[in-house]
Recover the amino acids of this structure.
């Protein structure tokens, strides 16, 4: 009887250890280096493009995003208006994910309303706002689903 009890307890302990050790974490638990992710995406997809980096003024004036809502951000928009590629990445401060998402969604609508060239119109219409944990991503390009896949892969590493 003691051997059976030991066996059951040992089995229960092993199951507990396996269950705890197999935690991949949720998107909320994962910390992503936005600068490295941006560099990887630009290098792999837009190596020939000429971009301007987001700065505080761009976020405040163009995106209408309150800087107090974000922990970190990185973004690139084209130097030439007829190039319809833009990538923005934002880490929201705790409790601010909805406000950041709303601002980015609003920016997407601004891009759609102000699109001038055919490629810009199409890319703005097909742009993606992706939310992963405390991160919000704005993806506007010819292949937004491919970029989305690359971003989502950063949350499984």
């Amino acid at each position: 009887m003691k051997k059976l009890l030991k066996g059951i307890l040992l089995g229960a302990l092993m199951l507990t250890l396996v269950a705890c050790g197999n935690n991949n974490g949720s998107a909320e638990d994962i910390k992503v280096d936005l600068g490295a992710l941006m560099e990887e995406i630009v290098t792999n997809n837009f190596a020939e493009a000429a971009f301007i980096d987001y700065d505080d003024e761009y976020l405040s004036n163009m995106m209408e995003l309150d800087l107090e809502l974000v922990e970190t951000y990185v973004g690139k928009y084209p130097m030439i208006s007829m190039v319809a590629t833009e990538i923005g990445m934002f880490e929201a401060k705790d409790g601010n994910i909805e406000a950041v998402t709303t601002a980015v969604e609003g920016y997407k609508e601004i891009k759609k309303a102000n699109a001038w060239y055919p490629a810009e119109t199409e890319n703005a219409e097909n742009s993606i706002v992706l939310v992963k944990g405390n991160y919000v991503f704005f993806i506007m390009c010819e292949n937004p689903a491919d970029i989305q896949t690359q971003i989502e892969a950063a949350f499984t590493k």
User: Anything to note?
Assistant: DSSP finds six helices and five strands in the chain. The two ends are 45 Å apart (CA to CA).
